Amino acid sequence: MSMNVYQVAMRNVLRNKRRSILSGVAIMVASMSIVLLFAFIGGMKQDMRNNLTTYYTGDIRIRNAQFEEYERYNPVHLTVNESEIASVLNQFEEVESYVPRIRFPSSFYINSGMQGAVGIGADFEKEADFQQLDLILKEGRLPAEGEYEMLLGAVLARDLGLELGDSVTVMSTTSARGTNAITLKVVGLASFPVASLNTQFFWIDIDTARYFLRMGENETHEMLLRSDGDIDSTASAIHKAVLESTGTEVESKSFSQINDLYSMLSIAENVYYIFTAIFLFLGSTVIINTTMMVIYERMREIGTLAALGMKGKELIRLFFFEGLIISTIASILGVIAGSLISLYLSKVGINFTDAMSGIDMEISSILYPQFAPITAVWIFIYSLAVTAVATFIPSRKASRIEVVEALRYV
Q1: Rounded to whole angstroms, how far apart are CA atoms 198 and 201?
Q2: 209, 232, 258 — which closes off a domain?
Q3: How does residue 267 score in pLDDT terms, banded at 50, 70 and 90?
Q4: CB 300 within 8 A of CB 406
Q5: % the chain with pLDDT above 70
Q6: 143 contacts 203 by C-beta, under 8 angstroms
Q7: Are 192 and 143 in contact (CB under 8 A)?
Q8: Domain of residue 386, residue span
Q9: Highest mean predicted confidence (pLDDT) among 170-184, 264-278, 299-313
Q10: Residues in Cβ contact with 29 at an 8 Å cutoff, skipping those fewer than 6 apart
């Protein structure tokens, strides 16, 4: 009998194609939109993680324990000893590589005026193992070791009217709280994925930065680490190891502990699952309404089936199967459409250059959604479960109709 009920349900779905398509489109659009939403969120999280760990925090960042407290005052003097910490890091197999960096606010003296910028002192030999420098280098070359040269963000260079070979004087505060100036030659132009890095930052050799800021030979503001495994546990273990080995208290944190926005994205992803259920249920209301209309349109048919011996449970299955067939086909089409669009966008990207202009966020101007097949499968199951529940509601209505009442219905 179950097979007969299923066959009748399939016949009824095909009998009124326009109504079936109308019901299915709502579910299809909902499923497709949810696949795209999670692909977008996944791409945003992956992009933010890549940018954070490459340009801002590493997987783990080590700094002077007091640096964060006084960061707003430009505490150039609050440093850590690179060689001491490097000897500790060699004990950790989880640490794949590290780079020392010196970050300092400064001003360009150009055209008889001052232009604010942020300088980064970097060891470019170690940076080559930490990031793909060839991808960010737009023109020219990297600054040479110990030379008075700079790698300048392409947009900042354009705004200042600087080109390769030009020189500019930079002023900043030293570790002794005095003021110093240095003239640097532009030898390279960089195109970073993050807008603020292109508009506000310049990079120089770390030894040049130490000389300019009157810092010691091995002093650095931060050390960024590449690490695998549980980075939170590794960060905590490094903190203890540095303290035991050197007697120095340092701040050792993972990127997720440092950046609040990334943590909020992770929380938001869980919240979106709740909105997904609501969104799918709203889409399912079309099936509820359509099924209710069908019930009232087919009252005499329901009465006839009941009179012929079809029981209430079989009537539930009949209308439930009708809604489930529509939901299944629509969910499959919606997930496939969303997956194909996500795959396409993951290749070409979505350009947010104009939208991100002037916004200081660790998100690239071109965002590539991340399509995850397992996510698409779960969304399909999720869609089917929600719509099945929604379909069951009017199906119960059909089973409760009295035979005499249905046969009298005109």
Answers
A1: 6
A2: 258
A3: low
A4: yes
A5: 79
A6: yes
A7: no
A8: 2-53+261-408
A9: 170-184
A10: 283, 334
- The DSSP 8-state label assigned to residue 52 in this structure reads I
Per residue in 157-170, pLDDT (tens digit) is 998 999 999 999 99
Asked if residue 358 has pLDDT above 80, the reply is no
Give the CB-side neighbour count of residue 86, counting CA atoms within 13 A: 11
Q: Which residue has the tokens 């695998």?
A: 228
- Considering the entire predicted model, what is its pTM? 0.74
pLDDT confidence of 375, banded at 50, 70, 90? confident
Tokens, residue 349 = 């990207």
Residue 79 pLDDT more than 60?
yes
Tell me the helices (H) and strands (E) count for the chain, helix number first. 16, 14
Same domain for 92 and 188?
Answer: yes
Could you say which of 229, 258, 287 is where a domain stops? Answer: 258
Looking at the 3D structure of the chain, how many domains does it have? 2
Q: Tokens for 30?
A: 């909902």
- 324: burial class by Cβ within 10 Å (0-12, 13-18, 19+)? buried
* Same domain, yes or no: 252 and 266: no
DSSP letters, 246-277, are H---EEEEEHHHH-HHHHHHHHHHHHHHHHHH
